[in-house]
Amino acid sequence: MATRVEIINDFLAINVNVENTIQRTAEVSGSTLNFGCRSGECGLCIVEIEQGKEFLSEIELQEKETLEEMNKCDKSKNYRLACQMKITKPNGLIRIRN
C-alpha cells in the first residue's frame, strides 16, 4: 500500500510505500530538495507540509530542537525536516513545498 507524495516545487508526484522516508523518496525521484547532515541537525532540508501531515511520523526531539532554533516551530506553520519524516499510513496524499 502506498501514499502519494507530491513535491510541488519540482512538479513531482511519487507513490511511496509506508515506512519510507521523505529523504529517500526525494533522492530516488530526482527532486531538488537539499540535504546536509541527514540527522536533523542542520535544517537544510526544511519543507512546508501543505497537506497530509497525518500520514507522517511525529516530530522527534532533534527535529523539534532544530525547528525551534530556526524559528519555524510555530504551530500555525507546518514546517518539517524532510530527512526526519517517515510515511506512516497508506492511501494518503502528502503535498510538500520546499
Describe the structure.
By secondary structure, the protein is α+β, with helices and mostly antiparallel strands. It has a single domain (2-97), classed as Ubiquitin-like (UB roll) (Roll). 17% of the residues lie in helices and 27% in strands. The protein contains two helices and five strands. The protein has helices at 22-29, 61-69, and strands at 2-7, 12-17, 46-51, 79-81, 93-97. The chain is globular.
What topology emerges from the helices and strands here?
Elements (H helix, E strand, L loop, with lengths): L1 E6 L4 E6 L4 H8 L16 E6 L9 H9 L9 E3 L11 E5 L1
Short recap of the structure:
The chain is globular, with a radius of gyration of 12 Å. By secondary structure, the chain is of the alpha+beta class. It has a 5-stranded mixed sheet with strand order 2-1-5-3-4, covered by helices on one side.
Order of helices and strands: EEHEHEE
Any low-confidence stretches, pLDDT <50, length ≥5? none
Structure classification: alpha+beta
Mean pLDDT score:
91
Question: How would you name the CATH homologous superfamily?
Answer: Beta-grasp domain
Helix content: 10-25%
CATH class: Alpha Beta
Into which percentage range does the β-strand content fall?
25-35%
Largest sheet report:
5 strands, mixed
Rg calculated over all Cα atoms: 12 Å
**CATH-derived topology:** Ubiquitin-like (UB roll)
Number of domains: 1
Count up the helices: 2
Write out the strand line-up for the largest beta sheet, numbering strands in chain order. 2-1-5-3-4
Shape summary: globular
